[in-house]
Amino acid sequence: MLDLAALRRVLAAQRTAPAEGSGLRQAAVLVPLTGGADGPRVLFVRRSAALPLHGGQIAFPGGTWRQADASLLATALREAQEEIGLRPTDVEVLGTLSDTVTATSRFCIRPFVGWIPPGTALAPDRAEVEAILPVPLALLREPANFREERWERDGQSVPVYFYQAGSEVIWGATARILRELLAAVVAPAPGLPG
User: Fold this and answer.
1) What is the pTM of this model?
2) Contact in structure between 4 and 40 (CB atoms under 8 Å)
3) Rounded to 10 degrees, what is the CA torsion of 157, 11, 14, 132?
4) Could you tell me the CA-to-CA distances from 187 to 3, 73, 79, 131 in Å, in that order?
5) Which residues contact 160 (CB under 8 A, 6 or more apart)?
6) What is the chain's pLDDT, residue by residue, as a tens digit (194 residues)?
7) CATH class in words for 4-137+173-186
8) Pair 179, 170: CB distance under 8 Å
């Protein structure tokens, strides 16, 4: 069982400064957690192959900040409702992870971790999402399902992470966010013995 109070404390204690950089577009994602018969799960989406950016990739529900959005949290919740039919009232926001910058599309993504009660009705918007993919946390934590490669970017060697979830490969910004989430889930809450 996932201790939501402990996760909330860990997320509050590890928040890092927002990423900065010229030309970055602000975006937000919801990192949805829920329960399942096999324990806690992370909900991903497979983006429609027809989308111009990151089409066909595994991602978290989310998108670009709009002026009508009161905050980046509002962006994440709006996008989750549009993409997977998740009502904002059905999410308990637990906290945030570090901002993540996409190398190719130049987004600065703020990830919000949220708990969705098991059995909450979800429905993908087929124009944006091919499928909703619930993946057990235990599967993602297995060392055999993780690999790291070194890629050359702007003259520097950078780590690129990959998670295997059945036939799906999670990589890029989504994998960086997932890696931080997995560290938070296994970290001891501040003030508790490790």
Assistant:
1) 0.88
2) no
3) 10
4) 11, 24, 29, 30
5) 148, 149, 150, 151, 171, 172, 175
6) 678 888 888 888 766 656 666 678 899 999 999 998 888 999 999 987 666 565 668 999 999 999 999 999 999 999 999 999 999 999 999 999 999 988 777 889 999 999 999 999 999 988 889 999 999 999 999 999 999 999 887 788 889 999 999 999 999 999 999 999 998 887 554 444 33
7) alpha beta
8) no
Burial class (CB in 10 A: 0-12, 13-18, 19+), 146: middle
DSSP reduced 3-state for 83: helix
Radius of gyration of the chain (CA): 16
Locate 99 and state its tokens: 């901002």
Token pair belonging to 83: 């993409």
Is residue 39 left, alpha or beta, with left meaning phi > 0 and alpha meaning psi from -120 to 50?
left
With contact defined as beta carbons under 8 Å apart, do 110 and 96 qualify? Answer: yes
Ordered by start, the domain boundaries in the chain are 4-137+173-186
Give the separation between CA 131 and CA 133, rounded to whole angstroms. Answer: 6
